[in-house]
Structure formats: structure tokens, C-alpha cells
Design a protein that fits this description.
Elements lengths: L8 H8 L7 H6 L8 H7 L4 E5 L4 H6 L6 E6 L6 E2 L1 H14 L3 E4 L5 E6 L1 H13 L16 E2 L9 H14 L6 H6 L27 E4 L13 E8 L2 E9 L18 E6 L4 H15 L10 H8 L1 H12 L19 E4 L5 E5 L5 E3 L6 H11 L3 E4 L5 E6 L4 H10 L10 H4 L1 E3 L17 H14 L9 E4 L13 E7 L2 E6 L10 E7 L1 H18 L6 H7 L18
Parallel strand pairs: 6-7, 7-8, 16-17, 17-18
Antiparallel strand pairs: 1-2, 2-5, 3-14, 4-5, 4-13, 8-9, 9-10, 11-12, 12-15, 14-15, 18-19, 19-20
Helix pairs in contact: 5-6, 5-12, 7-9, 9-11, 12-13, 15-16
This protein binds siroheme and iron/sulfur cluster (SF4).
Catalytic activity: hydrogen sulfide + 3 NADP(+) + 3 H2O = sulfite + 3 NADPH + 4 H(+)
Cofactor: siroheme; [4Fe-4S] cluster
EC number: 1.8.1.2
């Protein structure tokens, strides 16, 4: 089990951090700078926060010899994306006071605050905890927010799956008391090295780890992009087990073929009651065998490809003490959300709002935050964030529906009903100005891009056709662009690589099509494809399937093939 390769700097830092304490308290207390020390910035991720700076202001501040405009991104841990109206109101208040008047729904069903000043960090994190939520393990080399199918109207199984997502999240949490000491004024251990991490150990995982639960026919959490996925198997309305999916992941580095997006493999079936043990054991195998010398090669997907699935299955069975059963058949139809009003069998209403890029802030066009705050004040159901960056106002009673509809109209919250199929299925990552890794715009570009593509679709008679579009500002893949029928990945300011042909249900990767395109070139590249699709598609044929059938791109299932031919 011992790894003879030299551990990378992050491994040494984690090991010496006294279970994630580092010198965070000292860094927070230093009034001379809006930043923390570089090592503490790395450790803070495990506490759910990233140090960033406003990249729009970088050059000007440099010119003025000022330090960068530091601010912290704070990510909430919210398994399954469910929160109550009371929690909503608390997060809304924190966002208005300390987060620049914005909340952002992420592609893992949770909220992020951006631009929190160092001096407010503790107030914000403590405030989130007061709302009975927290931020621990929302980032860092640990299990991240557990995502879960959450369309309540599709199945009464939602509640059961949601419970499993919460239990998974709890079960895989770090146990260090550093979080309570730093953010919640918990009693300080006199000897922090006596703290404990029974599952993770002192070095935690080699890299981030992601878990999700899907309920066919919806693959709305992109189960094949998770390090560890569970596909719920249902017979006669009862949950009978979970197909176990291992080794998904999106991130890659352009021009480095040793890195690639990878679809998870379905390796077997476990009983519902075995899910915690399976998750813990898979995570422990990655803890013990993941590459701790090279962070670009440290995700679980590479451990699997390096050692092989047969090795992994044998290791898993030997640690579990039993073999998984053969997987059960399943079929996914979509990776998207069903926007609009839906009524369930009990007469409750659910409204799924489409939110481009998941950004909630008041603008002259739409008072997102104000409108949703007003709704939270009268709503007696719950809110559900989706992994497609949308929002479900769930369990609205018949009596409350007119008042909620009135508030939506008053605050000009868009009715997604007339939206094009492309707009309904568009995602983008944050990118500029906050993301330190962005090479191009993403969130701020998406509305323009969609508005330029819609007339082409309209002209081709495809306005209502559901087509998945995902944009990211760099190849790390935060909006899972390699699982979109149209994926655009930022390479340099104003330049994108175009990937085409993923499965509509997120079950096939797309493939590189064109590189280094400007916005005009993206539009020009897609126009003839839309036109050809409209003219020559088979009955019910999806855009991605059409592009593969006509040979525009190959059908890619194996991640290792992905970077062949791309720069
Ligand atoms: Fe991500 C890093 C934002 C989902 C793959 N991601 C980042 C950072 C923290 C940049 C950084 O390291 O400095 C971004 C912060 C931007 C900002 O200003 O907020 C960032 N990732 C996001 C979010 C907010 C995108 C969004 O638009 O919603 C998502 C937060 C999810 C959450 O709530 O936990 C987000 N990131 C993802 C996903 C999608 C998913 O998990 O389903 C992926 C692809 C799946 C995967 O993990 O393989 C993803 N993020 C990455 C990577 C590439 C990891 C790799 O294996 O190579 C990085 C870079 C890294 O870790 O070094 C990254
Ligand atoms: Fe930043 Fe790249 Fe992730 Fe977009 S994909 S948020 S640019 S790391």
C-alpha cells in the first residue's frame, strides 16, 4: 500500500496542518492584508472557502500598487440541494450584507457566496451554521456535497433518496474539531494532534471526491461524472438497490493527454442498506491508492485506469467481505430538469425556475433575490437546488399558489414556459471575474451566446428542441461540458474549443470538433449543423446522436481517447 513516490507539497501541508488548523486563526486576525497566508488559503478549502481576487480589478490595482481586491468564495454544504424557507431567508440576508448581493446555485446543488471580505468570513460561516447548514468539506480533498435526484413530482421515492444523500454526506464528513474551533468558537483542544480522523487520516484524500445519487429515467445529477455514483433501482415503486458507478470525472489539462474526462463504470449492485459501507470502502481504496505525488493525476478515475477495474473490484470485494450483485438494467432519458409548474399525485405544486448559470441577484430586469425572499416568507414547502443550476420551489399548497404566482410576476421572475429547448438546457460555470483558473468568460458570456444561437434554431424549426449546451471558462469542466451535446471550453480570452456529440442523457462523452473559436466562429460552426440536423434527423433523434451518426464526431465512451487530436 505504501507509495514510494515523493508526496507533493499539498500532502506535506495537510500532514503538518494539525487536522486542518494550520495558522488560519492567525491569518484571519492579521489586519494588514485582505488575504491569508498561501498555506492557510489551501487549508481553508477544507472549511468550505476559497481565497480569490476580483480579476476585473487586477491590472488597475497593480498599477496603483495596491494588493489585489481579495474576497472569499464561501460554499455551503447542502446534500441533495434541499433547504427550508427559514434557511433561505438567512442565506439571503448574509448574501445581501456580506456577499455583494448575490447567491449562486452551483452545479452540485448548493449555494456559493462570492466576494466575502476576510473580516466578515467568520460571521458568514457562523451565520450559515446558525441556519443549521455548514460549509465543512464543501471544498478540499474530501468527499464534497452529495448530489441527489430531487424532482419531487416524479416519484415519491425522492424523500427516501434524499435521506440517503444526507446519510452519505454525514458518514463521509471529516471529524476534525478545527472547524468548530475556528468558526464557531468551539473549545480549543490543548493538543490538536490528539484530534482524530478515523476515515481520512492526517493526509485526507489525495484529491477531491464526489458522490451522487440518480433516479432513472432522470440523470439530472450526471451520475457518470461522479467519482462514485449510485443509480437507484426501483421495482413496483420500492427502492430495491443501487447500481454502483465508479470513476467519473471531468477535469483535464489541454495538451496533456495523461488527463481526460472519464465516464464512470457501472460495476455492480448493492442493497440500500449497504450504501454507506460501499461508499466508505470505495473512498478508503482511493485514500490508500490514489496518487499523492501529482495532483493532476490524483483523482480516483486515474487510480482506476492505472490499476484496472478488475483489480478494483477484487480489492472492493475483499474489503467489503462480499461481492456486489450483477447490476440491474436501467435507462436514462435526460440529464435536464423539467422546467415550469407540475402537480403531484397529492395535489401539491412544484415550480422549477430556469436560472441561467444559477446566478441570483437583483437586476433591472429581474429581482431574483427580492422576489425569492418574498416567496420564502410565505412558502410552507421547501426549496430545491438542482445540479443544472435551477431552482425548484417545491411542495406549494393549492392555497398558496396564487400568492406565489403573484410574487413571481411582481418581481419579473421569468416564466420558463416560452424558453427555447437550448436555453432550458444551458449551463455555465462561474469563470471571470472570481475564478482564479478561468481563461475565458463563461457565466457572463452565456446569455449572449444563447441569444445568438436561438435565432438559428428558430430558423431551422428547432426552437423547442431540447439540446444541451454547457460552457466553461477553462478545461476543468465545472459545468460538466464534456457531457453536453454542445460543449464550449475556454482556452484564452474570447477563444473556445468546441466539443460535440455527447448523449442527451449524459451517458456518452462529446468529442473535440473545432479549436480556438471566437464567438462569431462558434456561431458559424454551429449554423450548418443545426440546419443539417433539422433536415436529416431520424424520428426523435437527439442532436448529439445525429452528429455521431453522420460522422461529424466519433462516439466517445473512453476518456483516454478524449485528447487525441486536440491541443
Ligand atoms: Fe469546479 C476548481 C467552481 C463544480 C471540476 N471549481 C474550481 C474552483 C474552485 C477554482 C479554483 O480551484 O480556484 C472554481 C471556483 C469558481 C468561483 O469563482 O466560484 C470552481 N466547480 C465550481 C462551481 C461553482 C461551478 C458552477 O458554476 O457551479 C461548481 C461548484 C460545485 C459544488 O457546489 O461543489 C463546480 N467542478 C465542478 C464540477 C461538476 C461536478 O462536480 O459535478 C467539476 C467536474 C467534475 C469533476 O470533479 O471532475 C469540477 N473544479 C473542477 C476542477 C477539475 C478537477 C480535476 O479533476 O481536474 C477544478 C480545478 C482543481 O480542482 O484543481 C475546479
Ligand atoms: Fe473556473 Fe474553470 Fe471551473 Fe470555470 S471550469 S469555474 S473557469 S475552474
Amino acid at each position: 500500500m505504501a507509495d514510494s513516490r515523493t508526496p507533493c507539497a499539498e500532502e506535506v501541508l495537510k500532514e503538518r496542518s494539525r487536522y486542518l488548523r494550520g495558522t488560519i486563526l492567525e491569518s484571519l486576525a492579521d489586519p494588514a492584508t485582505g488575504a491569508v497566508s498561501p498555506d492557510d488559503a489551501k487549508l481553508l478549502k477544507f472549511h468550505g472557502t476559497y481565497q480569490q481576487d476580483d480579476r476585473d480589478l487586477r491590472t488597475e490595482r497593480q498599477r496603483q500598487k495596491l494588493e489585489p481586491a481579495y474576497g472569499f468564495m464561501v460554499r455551503v454544504r447542502m446534500p441533495g440541494g434541499v433547504c427550508t424557507p427559514e434557511q433561505w431567508l438567512r442565506l439571503d440576508e448574509l448574501a445581501r450584507r456580506y456577499g455583494g448581493g448575490s447567491l449562486r446555485i452551483t452545479t452540485r446543488q448548493t449555494f456559493q457566496f462570492h466576494g466575502v471580505a476576510k473580516r466578515h468570513l467568520k460571521t458568514v460561516i457562523a451565520g450559515i451554521n446558525q441556519a443549521l447548514l455548514n460549509t465543512i468539506a464543501a471544498c478540499g480533498d474530501v468527499n464534497r456535497n452529495v448530489v441527489c435526484h430531487n424532482n419531487p413530482y416524479l416519484s415519491p421515492l425522492h424523500g427516501e433518496l434524499y435521506e440517503w444523500s444526507k446519510r452519505l454526506s454525514e458518514h463521509l464528513l471529516p471529524r476534525t474539531r478545527a472547524y468548530h474551533e475556528i468558526w464557531l468558537d468551539g473549545e480549543r483542544l490543548t493538543d490538536p494532534s490528539a484530534d482524530e480522523e478515523p476515515l481520512y487520516g492526517r493526509r485526507y484524500l489525495p484529491r477531491k471526491f464526489k458522490v451522487g445519487i440518480a433516479l432513472p429515467p432522470d440523470n439530472d445529477i450526471d451520475v457518470f461524472a461522479q467519482d462514485l455514483g449510485f443509480i437507484a433501482i426501483v421495482a413496483r415503486g420500492q427502492l430495491t438497490g443501487f447500481n454502483v458507478v465508479v470513476g467519473g470525472g471531468m477535469g483535464m489539462t489541454l495538451g496533456d493527454p495523461a488527463t481526460y474526462p472519464r465516464l464512470g463504470d457501472v460495476i455492480g449492485l448493492c442493497a440500500p442498506g449497504q450504501i454507506l459501507q460501499v461508499a466508505e470502502t470505495v473512498l478508503a481504496i482511493q485514500r490508500d491508492y490514489g496518487d499523492r505525488s501529482n495532483r493532476k493525476h490524483a483523482r480516483f478515475k486515474y487510480t482506476l485506469d492505472d490499476r484496472g477495474l478488475a483489480w478494483f473490484k477484487a480489492e472492493l470485494a475483499s474489503r467489503l467481505g462480499f461481492e456486489l450483485e450483477p447490476p440491474q438494467p436501467f435507462r436514462f432519458e435526460t440529464s435536464g430538469d423539467r422546467l415550469g409548474w407540475q402537480r403531484d399525485g397529492r395535489g401539491l405544486w412544484h415550480l422549477t425556475l430556469g436560472i441561467l448559470s444559477g446566478r441570483l441577484r437583483d437586476t433591472p430586469e429581474t429581482e431574483w433575490l427580492t422576489g425569492l425572499r418574498e416567496i420564502a416568507r410565505i412558502h410552507d414547502g421547501d426549496f430545491r437546488l438542482t445540479a443544472n443550476q435551477n431552482l425548484i420551489i417545491a411542495r406549494i399548497s393549492e392555497a398558496n399558489k396564487p400568492a406565489i404566482a403573484e410574487l413571481l410576476a411582481r418581481h419579473r421572475i421569468p416564466d420558463p414556459e416560452p424558453w427555447s429547448g437550448l436555453r432550458r438546457h444551458a449551463l455555465s460555470c462561474v469563470a471571470l471575474p472570481t475564478c482564479g483558473l478561468a481563461m475565458a468568460e463563461s457565466e457572463r458570456w452565456l446569455p449572449t451566446l444563447v441569444a445568438r444561437l436561438e435565432p438559428l434554431l428558430e430558423a431551422a424549426g428547432l426552437a423547442r428542441e431540447a439540446i444541451t449546451l454547457r460552457v466553461t471558462g477553462c478545461p476543468n469542466g465545472c459545468a460538466r461540458p464534456y457531457l453536453a451535446e454542445i460543449g464550449l471550453v475556454g482556452k484564452a480570452p474570447g477563444k473556445y474549443n468546441l466539443y460535440l456529440g455527447a448523449g442527451f442523457a449524459g451517458d456518452r462523452l462529446n468529442a473535440p470538433y473545432r479549436e480556438n473559436l471566437t464567438e462569431d466562429e462558434v456561431v458559424a460552426a454551429l449554423a450548418p449543423l443545426f440546419e443539417h440536423y433539422a433536415r436529416a434527423r431520424a424520428d426523435n433523434e437527439r442532436f448529439g446522436d445525429f452528429l455521431v451518426r453522420l460522422g461529424y464526431v466519433p462516439a466517445l465512451l473512453a476518456g483516454r481517447e478524449f485528447q487525441r487530436g486536440s491541443q
